[in-house]
Structures are given as C-alpha cells and as structure tokens.
Specification:
58% helix; 4 helices; 2 domains; mainly alpha
Amino acid sequence: MSEEPHPRPTSRSTKRQLLELALTDALTGLPNRRALDETLAQVWTHGRERHAPLCLAIADVDVFKDFNDRFGNVARQAAIRTVSTAMLG
C-alpha cells in the first residue's frame, strides 16, 4: 500500500462543520467549555479595549446523581436538554 504524501485538502464547509462540532456539546447543542474559553478571551479583550462592562452567567445543572439513580440516565439527559432549551429561550 502506498500512502498519499499529503492529506487531501478539506473543504471550507467541512472545516466549518468540524469546528462547530468541536465547540458544541453533543447532548444539549449549547456551546461547550472550549467555546467558552475562546469566546471569553475575545470578549474580555474587546471589553478592556473599549472599557465596556462584561456580564457572565454560568449554570452548572449536571449535578444529577440522585436524579440519575432514581430515574435513570435517559431521564437525566432529557432534563438537561429541557434546561438547555429554556436557556436558549
């Protein structure tokens, strides 16, 4: 077998899709921690340059051990999706 000397170029659309997958939580569809880190750095810099205030709200709703033990993982995932849908408005 011969290997290609260079990987095939990836289309912009594919790269965009991969980036979106890398920055999105698969269960909720919300931005994940990686997205938070990137966005927060950009917003922080922007705010400092313009002396603009910054407001950040974080909700940790994945502390469901008792809920999971009683109702199961499927119900826990449904609850997390419900909360994330509500957060998206």
